[in-house]
Amino acid sequence: MQDDTEDPSAVRRQKAVNTTDSEWNPIRERASAARMSACGYIAQRALAPEKLPGPSADGIAARLDSIETAVLRLAERGEDDGWTAALRKVELQLLTERAISGEPGGPR
Hints:
Blueprint lengths: L20 H13 L4 H10 L9 H20 L4 H21 L7
């Protein structure tokens, strides 16, 4: 029996989801791996905050490292004029995005 003091909107009620077996099987496997019921897994994934589209800050940092390596090679050959300015702009943008997103963004 339900307690009358409980918020009715907080009570879980049975719902139905129509899927094919080929859609349901991976859901069930992922839920099992997360030690959750399939329904709980679906609800958690559907209600999770959406990730912003685009590369992660770590992906950008990895690309920045490869750009930095290319810039160092250009500098060794005396061809680094435009690349250094471009690299600094990318670093500033990365630090700004990390600050906005709350990700750690200390010096690499």
